[in-house]
Amino acid sequence: MATVNDPQSQQQVQQEMHTEPALPPPPQGEDYELRIYSHSSFFYWWPVWVVGYLIALLTYIEGIQVQIAPGVKPVFFHVSKNPGVMFTVVLFLVIVMTNVTVRGLASVIVVISIMFLTVLFAYLGWWEYILDWLPELSIYMNMGFYIFFSTLLFLVWAGSVFVYDRTTYWSIRPGQITHNVIVGGAEKSYDTRGMVFEKINQDLFRHWILGLGSGDLHITTTGARREELRIPNVLFVNSKVHALEKLISIRPDQFAPRSV
To answer: At residue 96, does pLDDT exceed 50?
Structure first.
């Protein structure tokens, strides 16, 4: 039996004392991969088909059957001109919001100005005169139009958001970010050391009203080949950024190699 005075035992004790402590294993049950999907601007068109279906339901409940011509099957119309005007205004606003960018303080000024003018016109009683100037503004569309148009738009919207936009994504792991393209199997990886991340969601109309908290991510890489990576229209961008910052703060050498 070896004693402490044994030279071999003393050497073994010294080696154990100078051995670096093993890194603690990562907590179990946590996901160490984050996938970020970039959506097209078509995602912001969801209010159009939602309002279209709601007006179709309203037309079915409160509408009347109108026979346009002899021998033609009667169709449902709403007795009021307001649903048609409302649908047209929503469609127009979505087109404008998704094509005109108003960010930061400018978007706040626009919203405050609209609210101020709306209240001012109501206080002065000008809305009645404005509506009297537009007596011919009567837009009537039958229930079939709302259902057909909203269904076509919904099918394209769902195919874009849940199928087409998911054919490419960004995968973030500790120490690495990879751009994956499913169709064709292409991918390109970057080292996360020294990367600069910028979150842009200052467009009040597109990012908050239509996008429900979406935003754009700008990533600048370091090294010999410096690149700027742009990931537009990321849903729930704030939570994605928090998870991303947590992942890139983890050292890759904390993970033991997994058996395949």
So the answer is: yes
Residue 191 sits at φ, ψ, to 5 deg, of -80, 130
Residue given tokens 């991918």 in the structure block: 187
Q: What is the tens place of the pLDDT at every residue in 12-34?
A: 444 444 444 444 444 444 457 88
The boundaries of every CATH 2.30.29 domain in the chain are 31-40+167-251
The HSE-up count of residue 154 (CA atoms within 13 Å, CB side) is: 12
Write the pLDDT tens digit of every residue in 115-137: 777 778 777 777 667 666 666 66
Tokens encoding 172:
């973030």
Whole-angstrom distance, CA of residue 100 vs CA of residue 94: 10
* Phi-psi map region of 12: left, alpha, beta (phi>0 left; psi -120 to 50 alpha): alpha
The sign of the dihedral angle between the CA atoms of 86, 91, 94, 100 is: negative
Judged against a pLDDT cut of 70, whether residue 227 lies above it is answered with yes
Averaged over 45-70, what is the pLDDT? Answer: 91
What number of other Cβ atoms are within 10 A of residue 167's Cβ? 12
Identify the residue with better confidence: 83 or 256: 83
The dihedral region occupied by 132, where left means phi > 0, alpha psi between -120 and 50, and beta the remainder, is alpha
| Correct CATH for 31-40+167-251 of 2.60.40, 3.40.109, 3.40.1130, 2.30.29 | 2.30.29
- Give the SS3 label for residue 188: strand
**Beta-bridge partner residues of 34:** 172
What's the pLDDT at 94?
87
Q: Whole-angstrom Cα distance, residue 155 to residue 146?
A: 14
